[in-house]
């Protein structure tokens, strides 16, 4: 049976080999880039390779012309498939057709539970699926795994798709050096659908199908998430004689086992590894510092390339393979039969054909430029697992960390990258915020009538409240951030989890499948290009990491890593003690993190429990807007928090509510989203009525009654967390 530790270690070894190949060819890549910059696509390739490529693309134009006139034999039309559809379908439709045979590799699901996924794979014949050797090195690794096809977003949201069990007993072959595994798939899904209509991506052996300088398109299930269609400007920079392709990416890499296509949606490579920037043998971050696996996410790594195994190399290895098992050899032979280049068949037909073929070929050269229609180029920056949803020219990206390992790490450190959040896949188990948690009725906030039009609502017009473990929230659909959160916090010693953040999985952010993906701001939209911005929890991980059992605590911890709970916060604002090279020696203390830690310490006298309401101040008129190429994101300058505790005084339970507004605007205005934050952040304690007016939310009268600053006007500045204003039961203020 496959294990996450084995896969993680195998990925690490593959990335090391990819890094060595990448760095060994640095001089050639530099020359390639210079040639492409001067001469365009193909300038770095040989004359003979360019000529073969042009001849093949001319036959594509001929094939399209023949198909339009009904002169292409039906059998050949089927074999060419979506390639000929290029002239008739929108780019998103082409991607959808090629993506249909792409699946996420998962454990077979249990009833009602969404299984964990470990990689991507895709059908390359009617019976066989291709993925990486480092995912399933042996037949026993593949036992118990399945292929989840059609797990993707559509008009009605995220579809669960179909699950087909892998069948390594029927066929299994893997190649460690070329890092591929070929596995049979059961013919019927768990729910009875046939595998036949899934289709497959043919392994066309012909070369060249791509030239240096052209784009590489990747379809993937990054970190087990919904299917993504990555149509990018991650250009091919090198074709290695050893059987690999190198293609650049700005910041993120793809998913293990994903198909990589040329601009005509022909398979050119099996993606298998990313390559980080190395300097003196050290992995570097995007900010130029040495990557620290103890304190940094792998999203911080400066990913500079991806590596894939060439299709022609895989086909060459399979042609040499001879299997003793006759049924298995028959399956292999069927795959090999589909590797012939259909455009070569068109060429033979034109050369041997009669007048109709000749007329069509001549007309095709006029109607269709050599190479046929091409896709529009969407410029995306991505450096790790990405989810890219493409439709009608709009692009949205979801990113996850933890799925890719890389070279240059000390041999004893890969375990730091193996941990993943233990997400509760069954969303029906979440009870959400409990209004009677403190023994008093404290309802969650509501939304001001003037802001209701911005909210994510159901068909009846009611605001959708999303329950999680220990907290709930409501989303502002216009701003794609939460409008408010309501959470229960328990710091009792017997409820807490003493394991460090890293042991629970680190920064593993996930989309919430209960709401549309475009309503959730993800890494590539904002957080990655804005290098001085943190993914700021509104419901803090430490506050939520409690429960009766280890599993309860793991689920509660992981739930805070939904994009719905994330907002952009400047690093020196979010972290109590900002770490990393850019903050070294500056003595910065983030006021948001410091205040949270202070409030945590104050819970002991009040039974270690509290109720917290929090959110960003979404000021549509004043909040700045920034577009990093994924569409504009209006990011908040202020955040609010209301903390409610209950004290036992004279046998009576008395609630106390504290309201705070924290402002990162001055610092971001001075230093921007990508420069070091060296200023102070404004923090003030406010009456809760003023928070209502500012944030567009409404609190229950019981919370107003408990407000320690009730009846006052204006905020009280907090130079430190210790300056928080308290109140006695009689309302007398004290510090």
Describe this structure in words.
The protein is of the alpha+beta class and 735 residues long. The chain has a domain at 431-734: Extracellular Endonuclease, subunit A (Extracellular Endonuclease, Chain A, 3-Layer(aba) Sandwich), CATH 3.40.570. Helix content is 23%, strand content 24%. It contains 17 helices and 36 strands. The strands form 10 sheets. The chain has an 8-stranded antiparallel beta sheet, sandwiched between helices. Strand 19 (386-391) and strand 20 form a beta hairpin. Helix 3 packs across helix 9 and helix 3 (47-68) packs across helix 10. The longest helix has 22 residues, at 47-68. The chain is elongated. The N and C termini lie far apart (60 Å).
| CATH topology (fold) name of the domain at 431-734 | Extracellular Endonuclease, Chain A
* Secondary structural class: alpha+beta
Largest sheet: 8 strands, antiparallel
- How much of the polypeptide forms β-strand, as a percent range? 15-25%
Quick structural overview:
By secondary structure, the chain is an alpha+beta fold. The protein has a domain at about 430-735: Extracellular Endonuclease, Chain A.
């Amino acid at each position: 049976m496959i294990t996450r530790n084995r896969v993680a270690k195998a990925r690490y070894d593959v990335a090391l080999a990819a890094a060595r190949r990448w760095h060994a060819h640095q001089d050639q890549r530099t020359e390639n880039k210079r040639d492409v910059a001067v001469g365009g696509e193909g300038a770095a390739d040989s004359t003979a390779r360019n000529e073969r490529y042009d001849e093949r693309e001319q036959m594509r134009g001929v094939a399209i012309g023949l198909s339009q006139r009904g002169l292409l034999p039906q059998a050949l039309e089927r074999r060419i498939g979506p390639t000929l559809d290029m002239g008739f379908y929108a780019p998103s439709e082409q991607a959808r057709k090629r993506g249909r045979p792409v699946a996420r590799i998962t454990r077979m699901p249990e009833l009602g539970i969404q299984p964990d996924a470990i990689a991507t794979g895709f059908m390359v014949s009617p019976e066989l699926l291709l993925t990486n050797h480092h995912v399933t090195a042996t037949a026993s690794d593949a036992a118990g795994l399945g292929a989840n096809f059609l797990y993707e977003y559509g008009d009605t949201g995220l579809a669960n798709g179909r699950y087909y069990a892998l069948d390594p007993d029927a066929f299994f072959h893997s190649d460690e050096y070329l890092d591929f595994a070929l596995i049979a798939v059961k013919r019927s899904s768990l729910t009875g659908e046939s595998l036949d209509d899934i289709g497959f991506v043919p392994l066309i052996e012909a070369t060249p199908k791509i030239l240096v300088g052209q784009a590489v398109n990747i379809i993937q299930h990054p970190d087990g998430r919904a299917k993504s269609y990555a149509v990018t400007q991650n250009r091919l920079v090198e074709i290695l004689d050893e059987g690999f392709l190198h293609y650049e990416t700005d910041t993120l890499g793809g998913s293990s086992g994903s198909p990589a296509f040329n601009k005509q949606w022909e398979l050119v490579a099996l993606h298998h590894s990313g390559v980080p920037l190395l300097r003196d043998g050290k992995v570097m971050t995007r900010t130029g510092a040495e990557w620290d696996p103890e304190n940094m996410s792998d999203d911080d790594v400066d990913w500079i390339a991806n590596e894939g195994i060439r299709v022609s190399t895989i086909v060459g290895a399979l042609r040499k393979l001879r299997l003793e098992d006759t049924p298995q050899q028959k399956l292999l032979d069927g795959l090999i039969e589909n590797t012939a280049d259909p455009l070569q068949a068109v060429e033979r037909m034109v050369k041997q054909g009669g007048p109709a073929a000749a007329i069509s070929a001549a007309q095709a050269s006029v109607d269709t430029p050599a190479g046929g229609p091409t896709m529009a180029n969407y410029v995306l920056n991505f450096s790790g697992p990405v989810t890219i949803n493409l439709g009608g020219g709009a692009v949205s990206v979801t990113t996850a960390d933890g799925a890719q390992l890389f070279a240059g790490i000390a041999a004893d450190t890969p375990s730091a990258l193996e941990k993943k959040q233990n997400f509760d896949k069954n969303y029906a188990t979440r009870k959400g915020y409990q209004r009677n948690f403190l023994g008093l009725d404290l309802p969650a906030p509501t939304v001001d009538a003037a802001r209701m039009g911005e909210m994510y609502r159901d068909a009846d017009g009611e605001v959708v409240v999303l329950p999680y473990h220990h907290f709930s929230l409501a989303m502002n659909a216009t701003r794609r951030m939460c409008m408010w959160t309501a959470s229960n916090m328990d710091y009792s010693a017997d409820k807490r989890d003493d394991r460090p953040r890293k042991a629970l999985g680190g920064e593993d952010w996930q989309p919430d499948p209960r709401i549309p993906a475009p309503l959730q701001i993800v890494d590539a939209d904002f957080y990655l290009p804005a290098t001085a911005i943190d993914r700021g929890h509104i419901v803090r991980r430490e506050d939520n990491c409690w429960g009766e059992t280890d599993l309860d605590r793991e689920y509660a911890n992981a739930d805070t890593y939904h994009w719905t709970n994330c907002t952009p916060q400047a690093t020196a604002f979010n972290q109590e003690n900002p770490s990393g090279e850019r903050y070294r020696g500056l003595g910065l203390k983030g006021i948001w993190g410091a205040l949270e830690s202070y409030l945590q310490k104050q819970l002991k006298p009040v039974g270690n429990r509290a109720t917290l309401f929090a959110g960003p101040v979404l000021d549509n008129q004043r909040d700045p807007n920034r577009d990093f190429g994924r569409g504009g994101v209006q990011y908040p300058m202020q955040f609010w928090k209301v903390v409610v505790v209950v004290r036992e005084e004279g046998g009576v339970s008395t609630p106390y509510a504290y309201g705070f507004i924290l402002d990162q605007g001055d610092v971001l205005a001075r230093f921007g989203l990508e420069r070091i934050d060296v200023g102070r952040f404004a923090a003030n304690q406010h009456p809760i009525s003023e928070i209502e007016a500012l944030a567009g939310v409404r609190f229950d009268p019981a919370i107003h009654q408990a407000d320690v600053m009730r009846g006052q006007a204006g905020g009280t500045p907090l130079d430190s967390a210790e300056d928080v204003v308290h109140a006695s039961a009689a309302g007398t203020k004290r510090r």
